[in-house]
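go over this chain:
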Amino acid sequence: MDFISILSIFVMACFVGYYVVWSVTPALHTPLMAVTNAISSVIIVGALIAAAAPAIGAGGTTARWLGLAAIVMASINIFGGFAVTARMLAMYKKKDR
């Protein structure tokens, strides 16, 4: 595939993702965050493999740095997802009087 095809797929995915996430009702927000956390955990597994690729003789230094960057960004995403989910669930708890 050429660069223009890959770029157009990426741009379309950004638009679709934006409209899907912003059209979710608040009741479905917590399950959506759970799925997002699951996807981010799969990204971390792939990033660990990419970061370890130079150690097993494949890839290069660029793969290691990109894998490290993916691990950091996915970890931030997972932590943020759990924080938002905890806050959303706290909204539904009974308040002590």
